[in-house]
């Protein structure tokens, strides 16, 4: 569809600034929620989330309009692919930091506090009676951080959610093949099924969180195990939510007749992102729930 064969330079845009402000407000709100018992943190956090939603709606609408006008050349397509690739790489580094914190606690900091290795004096001076084991059910300072009474079994909801996400990765791949074959009905059905699976995953994740807080004493305040568990699974859930919203927008565009077998990078970018969150979940299932 694109007939504009010169490099397209878009006009100045407010959306990067709006997105930066939204991210800043959201992070401030999240930090306030973790360190304050009041409601101000929740208000700040959801204000930032609304700003980000406004940015995404406005910016994506603008990009879609430009694409439908045929303004994008092959060079722009390559630029989009590079940009999406670097974005996913930054997300990989984001989760690598949290996985790194988990591994550091489990293999270095925790055993040191228990008196292992060349840091034996650390454990003797701080908590001489502390014995480290993972998952950490009894914290070094139980007076401040009460450990959980139980942990979540990986072979119930987590296993089911793993099957659901892996299945959704397969269905979005089938949708992509249907698009390349110009089978619009199959494309709609497979993509709709992908969105449904994503929503079901989030529903089970919420049910798991309610069970952890209400029945197991597993919370953000239950020590390092609870902190790493909710930081990793919580941020992943946020990414699944964003991915499901993106796929929903793509599904609406599919129903409107957007995308062709030759030009459909918007669909491909959403599929790349969805595959990414699926791979992260497999890592979570193995290293957070099982081991």
Automatic annotation (TrEMBL):
Residues 3-291 form the Heme-copper oxidase subunit III family profile domain. The keyword Transmembrane helix applies. The chain crosses the membrane at residues 15-34, 40-61, 82-105, 187-207, 227-252, 272-290. GO terms for biological process: aerobic electron transport chain. It holds the Pfam family COX3. GO terms for cellular component: plasma membrane. It is a multi-pass membrane protein. Keywords: Membrane, Translocase, Transmembrane, Transmembrane helix. It is found in: Cell membrane; Membrane. Gene3D superfamilies: 1.10.287.70, Cytochrome c oxidase, subunit III, four-helix bundle. GO terms for molecular function: cytochrome-c oxidase activity. InterPro entries: Cyt_c/ubiquinol_Oxase_su3, Cyt_c_oxase_su3_dom, Cyt_c_oxidase-like_su3, Cyt_c_oxidase_su3-like_sf, Cyt_c_oxidase_su3_a-hlx. Its EC number is 7.1.1.9. The keyword S-adenosyl-L-methionine does not apply. Belongs to the cytochrome c oxidase subunit 3 family. PANTHER family: CYTOCHROME C OXIDASE SUBUNIT 3 (PTHR11403:SF7), CYTOCHROME C OXIDASE SUBUNIT III (PTHR11403). This is cytochrome-c oxidase. It comes from Pseudomonas jilinensis.
